[in-house]
Amino acid sequence: MPPLLEVRELVKHYPLTRGVLFRKQIGAVKAVDGVSFALRPGETLGIVGESGCGKSTVAKMLVSLERPTAGRILYKGEDITRLSGRALKAVRRNIQMVFQDPYTSLNPRMTVGDIVGEPYEIHPEVAPKGDRRRKVQELLDVVGLNPEYINRYPHQFSGGQRQRIGIARGLALRPEVIVADEPVSALDVSVQAQVVNLMEKLQGEFGLAYVFIAHDLSIVRHISDRVGVMYLGRVVETGTDTEIYDHPTHPYTQALLSAVPVPDPEVREQRERILLTGDVPSPTSVPSGCRFRTRCWKARERCALEVPLLAVPAAFRDTHTPARHDSACHFAEERRVVPGDTRGQMG
Ligand SMILES: Nc1ncnc2c1ncn2[C@@H]1O[C@H](COP(=O)(O)OP(=O)(O)OP(=O)(O)O)[C@@H](O)[C@H]1O
Ligand SMILES: [Mg+2]
Known about the structure:
This protein is of the alpha/beta class.
């Protein structure tokens, strides 16, 4: 099936300026620096990566809240970064966002009915005025809220219920894609699963495709068909959930996964723990070549000189192993074991 949404070499650089009166550009924050992926109808693409790696910036570009510095966003084959006016509005209707924090993303002065029905103000053609109340009540019911709560205010709801309100608003225009930026991170662990389960149920019911952003790797594995791992503005590895979680070939993914707690003590015993040393470099001064090299235990000269492309590593190209998936590492085929007694350390 052709992709519903495709991103090619997407870039977002924020200018870094000095001076108040005479603003002078002294550099750029490379928030997103060449990201490519595809989303097929009805599937969930999970995006993971540490804080500041550019996940939210990608999300904002997908829903046209930010304009890319370069690159393309194709929706059903059409580059939406070039659209404006009515054509852009029509596309935006089909790509909706669910935000991270249900406490700050809902206007406290608006009733639930006004919040969920707000998209109809922008797209009155979807629901004529006389029909809106009923539509909003239907949406509340669909997300598991009592339709009689329509006149209540956000503060009268729990965090999980507020996120249901956010989801109902995201569904109002019957989009095909929902970009969910850390939709459960702000919620109690006990309600996270309920909201994730609701999102899965809605996906089946409405045939939605999700871009699901999170830093919790277990949640992403649970909901995703495919996963993209981001580091410092780029995707370093993509594959199916099994390929990424059970057969990671990029050192960064391996390190990320090694930090996930394992309940089974025997598995825990066997698994090596890879501790990343050093901090993530600043997106204003990205290392040359492979941007992960300053924290990588495999790094050598080539890594400083040559940017590794996101592709199936040569050694796995003709195999039928789960290692055969895209990974941006010059030495992906090398054993993952960290050498000698520096095991777990990188320098
Ligand atoms: N408007 C802006 N102006 C300048 N820099 C920005 C702007 N928005 C984001 N950035 C920077 O771009 C980088 C990526 O930010 P982004 O919010 O996309 O990261 P993230 O992966 O969503 O992080 P988190 O997990 O903390 O939400 C960060 O270094 C951030 O400080
Ligand atoms: Mg974010």
